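Data availability (excerpt). The following record was deposited with the supplementary files.
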Amino acid sequence: MERRHLTASLSDDALLDLVQRQTLKYFWDFAHPVSGLARERSNQPYFYDCYETVTSGGSGFGIMALLAGAERGFLPRGEVLERLRTMVAFLGAAETHRGVFPHFLHGGTGATIPFSEKDDGGDIVETSFLMMGLLSARQYFNAKSAGETDLRDAIDRLWHAVEWDWHTRDGQEVLYWHWSPRHAWAMNHAIRGWNECLITYVMAAASPRHPIPPTAYHNGWADSPTFRNGRRYYDIELPLGPAYGGPLFFSHYSFLGLDPQGLRDRYADYWAQNVAHSRINRAHCIANPGGFEGYGPDCWGLTACDGDAGYGAFNPEEDRGVIAPTAALSAVPYTPQESMAALRHFYEVLGGEIWGPYGFRDSFNRSRGWVAESNLAIDQGPIVVMIENHRSGLLWDLFMSCPEVQAGLRRLSFESPRLRGGEA
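Predicted structure:
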């Protein structure tokens, strides 16, 4: 790949502004023209129409990104409000499965697009990502005007309709990821940790009308051979998760809204967990046991993304030389100096190759001379949101202010300085 440099004269704040503004274009300019929801990806895969396929979870991330854009003045607040009203009205008429949204929707009609043969119904994890974004929007647009009141009411209708308890599959002490009206529980995927699904249990416990009992969290989510860890990797202790921590999105998706600072329960301190996970991922890229070109202290970050041989959940145990900018950039609250160094490397050194109309391309593999043609909603959203949480804490402030979220965290015996009255 020809190496072309971009300007190195921007301050940290100016560079963060640039990246947030450019990445926001994915959710503003490239949103589906009918629904306003986030398209799953920007390039055409072989098995679905990228222009009509919107993603429920990625739209939740996109909603949070739009709030950051409105707060920073990158997008007009009134226009963001109207875009969200369009999105929420569309979701209110879209096909759901006991209030649960599918992974993919048709952006023009709201019909379910099957993610796989038997995954053609409700996806409780993607729905939790969507609801995290919607509740954040409800808290942000808090004025008494008719437009903002209507938006809040419409969001509450969607939120209250989700039958989280249905996904315990007749009252089992665990959540199940998928349910289909045609295939029922055939996917048979119990959600156990540690991974990106902490937010799913928090939302399910927080539901005003269809909550799950705390036992589902303690006896389901926490009952897994890859939940507790406690071992050291690169001399860094990892409280939870698989060896070396797994892909970095584990420390991003749930924590777009959940503030990990001071967040603790009987299993872990979640700030310590996410910092350790990020540091181990970077340390692996510095050690570079696979000998991949380009890896180093300023070029790191393994997570789920497109790869030169297809999409994969890349991590230190499944490393094929594919670096995703979202991995290091979305870790900026946990590794601020290291993530800023990576951002400068990606933009100033590699920018001529990997910078595009929606910010950084999804991924690259310098050993293969390959750069992804794509951007993905689930990778674009965390870049904007986690940069904003690092800069201002905006999305953490909004989501953690939800009374239902606070009640859900208390039900699950979490402690956090965000909980009213101090620690639980």
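Summary of structural features: Residues 267 and 370 are 40 Å apart (CA to CA).
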